[in-house]
Structures are given as structure tokens and as C-alpha cells.
Amino acid sequence: MNPKSLAKLEFDKILSMLQDCCTSTYGQEQVSELKPSTNLAEILAWQRETSEAKDLLRREPQVPLRGIREIRSAVWKAKMGGVLEPAELLDVASTVMAIRQLRGFLTRQAGQDTILWQMGNSLGVFPSLEKQITDCITDDATVKDTASPALNRLRHQIRGLESRGREKLEQIIRQPEYQKLLQEAIVTIRGDRYVVPVKQEYRAQFAGIVHDQSASGATLFIEPMAVVEINNELRRVRLQEQEEVTRILRELTSLIRVEAAALEETIKNLGRIDFVLAKGKLSQNMDAGEPKLNAHGCLAIIQGRHPLIGRQAVPVTVCLGKDFDILVITGPNTGGKTVTLKTIGLLTLMAQAGLHVPAQTGTELSVFEQVWVDIGDEQSIEQSLSTFSSHMSNIVQILRSADQRSLILLDELGAGTDPTEGSALAMAILEHLQNVGAKVVATTHYSELKTFAYSRERVENASVEFDVRTLRPTYRLLIGLPGRSNAFEIASRLGLAPEIVNRAKQFISGEELQVADLIQNLKENQRVIEQEREEAERLRSEATRIAQELQDKRQEWKERETRLLQKAQAEAFQIIRQARQEADQILRELRRARTQAAEKAAVRTAEEAKKRLKSLQDQVYEQTQTELAETTPNLTELKPGDLVEIIKLQQRGYVLSEPNSSGEVQVQAGIMKINVKLAELKKVKEKKETRDYAGNGQLMANKTKTIANELDCRGLTVEEAIIQVDKYLDDAYLAGLLQVYLIHGKGTGALRAAIKEYLATHPYVRSQRAGAPYEGGLGVTVVQLKNK
């Protein structure tokens, strides 16, 4: 990839952001070596590992990467035969511990056979090395007493000798005859030997060895002869201690030397894992996603944001390579044309480097062999080149190298020279690039290029939108429409006299004015079409949501019907069991009666049993007749407005029509109108106050027919919304709706919170929840109402 293009598109700043997401220098070094690839298979693998890292970080944000140190120099030193210091050994132990924890984390949390799982398995573990170092080295990088029995014994001797020496000196400085000889009654150390400060004038009166003197020369630090032997012994033991420490360090270093090759390979793999996790973290920070990729030059960026501008960037939607190969963008200065070019180029480079791009789902990018860029002021004082000459030098190089696998981004093509000649050159350049099959996005101010785009196949116009009323660009890209300079409108809005503006218009040919008006009309039509498209999209989403809701309700009714049938069967079996038990009891009593000696008693018992059996028969018959009467309404009495229950569904509704020839009536049950056979209905007795069909009963039937299952509160204040919701819930409950949708939008969340608080105490509300993604997400509250 051309280094100049990488620099112009500021790819290095993306790498800097990626390095900030790394935990170790190993990962940062891998970032510094990252370059966009042109191999589609390799890029797809890179994108997959980035997606895995992002998904892992979403599930498990705390990846164990702490404790990793830079140990490559220590490993190299061990390989070369050197002896590592305790601090270096401690860094090695800390790093191998972190590697062990990271391996365990990845093999547990990453899915089996994923790239991250395989990377985790590639990390070596060194439990013996880790244990032996931590057993010998303290956290403050010193060798422990317990590192070896010999070291423990020597340090015990050192502490004993130090104690004896200090006690001896304490005795000396406490003796009265020495008080006037000492500068201070203290014990200090010079050159690893215990000494006391003696005044210079009393040197001859104090027996001992002088080791140092103060800067003024007034104080001598003398080792009393009484402790010379103790200090000599202490020095000898300390030398032995140092030899033992060196032996221990050499032994620990030899363990690292044995594992040097495995450690180096593990460090390399560790750097790769840190790098991949950094890519996932960067994707999270940018709110980015994995793009689709192809190798045939088609790109479709959906709501793409320039990653260096951040969330303030106005999203751009642009396509190239499908219906056209060259896009000519026109419009006013500061309108976002250059940002659009850089966004297209930078997102392409990021995708080819295996990074996610900040754009909506469905974005597709192509893999290009080269991305050529001519953006910005290329004037060179050192080479005595004008702006136009520098641009031409750059474009000449591009034209020599461009082919069908090139993406070319040209800013202000043909600018910096005479407009007539510049526009002619620009058209010739675009024609050549089209002939070689390159994909091109170019910005310009020349109106001739707008005509060129209209007259050439597979060349398309685009413009950046400009609001003449506010004199500000909207930064929105409109494909299919050329832009206007808007010079006359801007001049008028800024106060230029109308007669001057009108005179200026006279210098413009009638055809050019007609073209400008045509462009304005096209823009207005484009705006209207976009609004209608958005409304159609909203209606399509609403239809999809309703269809899904009906499907869910249908499934729920099927499940309820199954449960009711099972319940009915169970109740029927229970009735049969009870009847059989009663009959068995009657037969047993009859048999018992026959065995009785008295025939009279047997006859009486039989009569009583017959009466009980007749009573049971009458009871079952009466209950059956009652149920039949309830479930089969009189055809002449059932009329619109009657409240009925659909037996199979256990759902209440209102009759909407007279019975037809097939014995069916239309019933409004919630939001659905269904035809139901009379045999499947049961008339429900209404309360006295609802019996008047011209009154409340008819009102409920009318509400059922007209009320929608949603209320849109967007644009209302909290007070206005609460009033609307209160009235709507009364109507919905009266109509028998079981589920309704309150649309309040996302916004600041204040309206959603107020509605949620109000619903919590409403008598008709059974439950409430936020909408699912297909229902509107956090912009909708779904309310379950109680049955009447």
C-alpha cells in the first residue's frame, strides 16, 4: 500500500489509537507493524479475530493482562550466560504468572475452536519456573532467607554478630570516661563496619581504627579495638552470604536459560493476543462493526463516520462499483466533500487491516491493491512547484499505476489553474481512469464535470447538502444530484444589494440559470422522496411488528387451546372416576344386602341405592343441559353488541354481526375480528349498568371497533403525555385490549421515566416492559392490561 496515501488518510492516527488499547509493549510493537493487506482470505481471518475479541470483551470485560513485564532482555541475558538480578527474575515470574492466567481464561471463556481459543492454547506455561522464583525472591526484589538452608544459616549468623557488635559499642558509649571524647553518643556504620564519632582532639585517647572523618575534619569515625574482631567476622560471613545469593541467582537464571526458546515463542504469541484484544477494544470504543468484504470493487458504506472525528461526525452513506464506477461530488466549500473522501479511504484501509469500521450493519467494502489519494494543498516551496503543479505531479504518478483494482480519491480535481483548461483536464483524467477500470471518487467546483457525469455511463453526480436559510452545510451526501455553489443566495443573505445580485445573474447564461433551477428542483424532489421513503420504512417496520405480534398471539392461542383441551379431558376423566367409584360403592352395598338374613332389609337397601343412582343420573343430566344452554345461544336472541366468550380461547369479545347462513357471527376480540360458530360461543351476562345496548354496551362495542393498540406520545410534554395515556388506557381497557404500546421515543429518557412511574400505580395495568428490538426498543413501553 502506498505510504503517502496512508499518511494523507491519517492511518497512523488509527494505529496510535490502537496502541493505546494495548496492555503490553509486545502488543504495541505488533500494532506498529500493521499494514493493510490485499489478500482477501487473510483479511477475513483478521476480521474474524477482531469480532471474536469484541464479543469476548462484551461478555468478560476484565481480561487478566496485568502483571506482564518486558522480559526479552532478561531472557537474552540468561541465554548469553549472564546472571539475572532479583528484580529481573521477579519480572519473569510476574510475566509467566500472567501468561498462565491468560491461557486459562481464554481456554475457558473463548469458544472452543475459535481463533482466541487456539491462541490461548499456544501460550506456554512454566509452573516450575514460576514457583521456584517466587519461593526465592520477595515482592520487593530481594532473595528470601529461605531460598536455601545455607543462606538461612549465614543470615542468622549475621544478625547475631550485628547484635553483639552493637551491644559492645553501646557499652562503650555509655561509659562516663568516653562521654567527653564522643561528638555524639551514637553508633553508626562506615564501610560495613560499626564505628562511633570521636572528636578530633581526643584521637590519641581513643584506641581504634579510623575509617572516615566529617567534612569539617572535627569528627573522626573510629572502630574501637574491642569490636574489630566482631566486625572482621561479620565481614567474612557477609561475603559468604553474597556468594550464596549469587549461587542462588545463577541457579534460577539457568532455569530461564533452559526455557529461553519456549519463553520467546510464548512472548511472541502473547503480543499477538494483546494486539487482537486491542482491536476488539478499539471496535467497542468506536461503536464499530465487521464489514462485508468482496474482491470485485463494490463498496456500500451505510451511515459511516470518520473515526478521528468521533461521535460528532455526520454519518455518510455512499456506494460505488455497482451502478457506477466514478462518483463526482460537488457543493460549497466546508460542506464535507473532503471529509467524505477521507472517510471512504480510511474505512477501506481499516477494513483491509482487519479492523472494524464505524458504520451501520450491512456496510460492504472491497479489497483494493492500491488506494491512491490526492487531497489537500500539495504546494512545495523547496521544489518550486505551484499548487497546480504539485497536484499534477501526484496525479501523473496515479495515472501510471492505476488499474481495475485501484481506489482513487481526488480532491478538487483540476483546481489551481484556468477553469476552462482545468475542467477539460479533469474530464480527460476521469475518462482515462474509467477506461482502465479504476474506482474513483472526485470532488470539484466545475459545472462542466456535472454535465460530464450526466452524459457518461457508469459516472454519477453527488452533492453535499447546503441549507441556504442558515448559510450552513448539513454535511449530508446526496447521490444522484449535482451541487450548486449557492453564491447568489449566500451573497443576498449576507446583505449584498439586490441590484448587484440581479446584475450578476444577467452575466450568467439562461441555460446555466435553468440548470441551477433544475438542480434546486431535483434537490427538493429528492428531499420529498427521502421523507416518503422514511415513512414507508416506518410503516413497513410497523407492519412487520404487527405481523410478528399476531403470529405470537396465534401461537399463544394455540397453546391455550391445547391447555384447555387437556384440562377438559382431565376433568372428564375425573367425573368418570367419581361415577365409577359411586357405582362400585352401590354394587358393594347391594352384595352386602343380599348376604343379610332379613329380606326386608335387603329390599330397603336396594331401594335406597336405586334412589341414589337416580339422583346422580338427574344431577349429571341437569348439569349437561345447563352447559348446553349456556354454550348454544338462541339464534334469534344473539345480536350485535352482545358480550360473549369464545369457549376454546377463553377470550371475551363483542358480537359485530347477525348470524349468517353457516351459523357464524363476527366477534371483535381485542384487536382481532374473527368468525366464530355459535356452538363455540357462550353468552356472558353483563352487569346491569352495561345491559343498555344504546348506552355503555354499545360504547364498548364501538371502542372495540375503533381503538388502536398503540398511542404515540412523541413531541408531548410530560403533563400532556400523562393525560393522553390515562384516557387511552381507559378506552383500551373498556375495549378489552390485553396488550398496548405506548410510543414515547428515546430522547433524554424523561418522558419514558414519567410514563413508567405512572403505569406502576395504574389500576388497569397488569405489567409493563421495554419494547423488544423489533417493537421499537427503548422508544416503546409495552403494557399488559388486566382482564375485565
Compact overview of the structure:
By secondary structure, this protein is of the alpha/beta class.
Task: Specify the overall morphology.
Answer: flat
> SS-based structural class?
alpha/beta
The stretches of 5 or more residues where confidence is low (pLDDT under 50) are 378-384, 628-633, 688-697
What integer is the average pLDDT?
81
Question: Cα distance, first to last residue?
Answer: 71 Å
Hey, roughly how much beta strand do the residues contain?
A: 15-25%
Helix content: 40-55%
Total E-strand runs: 23
Radius of gyration: 45 Å
Strand order of the largest sheet: 10-11-12-8-13-14
How many individual helices? 23
Biggest sheet statistics: 6 strands, mixed
Key traits:
flat; alpha/beta; 6-stranded mixed sheet; 788 residues
What would you note in describing this structure?
With 788 residues, the protein is of the alpha/beta class. The chain is 52% helix and 15% strand. It has 23 helices and 23 strands. The strands form six sheets. Strands 10-11-12-8-13-14 form a six-stranded mixed beta sheet, sandwiched between helices. A five-stranded antiparallel beta sheet has the order 18-17-16-15-19, covered by helices on one side. A four-stranded antiparallel beta sheet has the order 1-2-4-3. Strand 16 and strand 17 form a beta hairpin. 30% of the residues are buried. Residues 378-384, 628-633 and 688-697 have low confidence and may be disordered.
